[in-house]
Amino acid sequence: MDKLLGIRLKKAREEVNLSQGAFAKSLGLSSEYISLLESGKRTPSFETLVKVAGFLNKNVSYFFEDKRPAFERLFDLAEADERVRKDLLKFQATCVRYLDLEDRTGRRLDLAPQYARVSAERLAEEERRRLGLGNEPIRDVLALCEVNGCRIIRQTLPEEARIAGIFVFDEERKAAFALVNANEPPGLQTLIAAHLYGHYLMDRADGPIVDNPDVVVEEYVSLYPPREQFAQAFASRFLMPPGKLRELVEKDQRSKSLSFDDVLFLKRYFGVSTRAMLRTLRGRGILPEAKFEEYFKRNPEDREQEVFGGLSGQEERRSRTLFRKSRTIPSDRYRLLAAEAAAMDKARGEPAPGPPKTGENDE
Prior knowledge:
With about 375 residues, the protein is of the alpha+beta class. The protein has 3 domains: about 1-65, 434 Repressor (Amino-terminal Domain), CATH 1.10.260; about 70-240, no CATH class; about 240-320, no CATH class. Helix content is about 55%, strand content about 5%. It has a 5-stranded mixed β-sheet with strand order 4-2-3-1-5, sandwiched between helices. Helix 6 crosses helix 17, helix 7 (about 120-130) crosses helix 11 and helix 9 packs across helix 11. It is globular. It starts with a helix and ends in a 15-residue tail after the last helix. The model has no long low-confidence stretch (mean pLDDT about 85).
């Protein structure tokens, strides 16, 4: 909200052709304070906001309402440099192509219900019940998001962008999109997708959301707005149902303390990363803090390879997936629609449009 307020304040100030200094002087405020407001780094008091709104001949609501198209607002929120802006434009273009494929094939997705305000734990339980998942693990949460109306686009973003994921809801077309940074380790991508799905279920009417990597880390998410804490609590419950986790621990490990190998077994069972599993076990009181700290320092991949003969696909290492140049990775559903549209075009004797570029040199 501070970011949106800053954008709207700067726009209104420029409409009356005032510099920050002249504007501040007229209000009896410092130019430094106005600069902080416009950059979204300071929250004004209600009295100050009323004074500013009155001077600009605006309603207070003006500073919080933004009816521009979702992607136009996204570019403001992302504070993007030119490289990242190109990546966001590519994301937008892929979203447009995705909807075009749905229209051509007649396979538009229905939206999942938007829930009334409930606890994150209750939302995870209700959504699992709605989808008939029971307490079993979700083997492909990205595919699950897609078939339930939240289109997933995996795209590499530069590390300096500090973007783990993006959620955008196109109100006009009633279409939801989530970008998952494919430069993150696979296990983290799973968590990011579930986190964005939480935004989809609860926050789709609130405008675009740009999440940095810290919001999917338990130790840091408490520093962020409540909706981020909510989405992360939902993601943990949705991916690792407490009942099933407790059942596995009590049934198989029984009363003994969990070994590192037990943790690796559990993370493979639920299809998440080792660190996500460790944080969940600690958060639910199953793993003592001392054990958590000991296991957190260990290299999970070498031990997993040794014990289980291979990795589960949720390895932690960023270097295995890091792409220096922009790359879009179409989902299975996108590829299915593209193949169907191509077959329809071939039957009509029309040239089929090419798929989105996916190579490392894709700019």
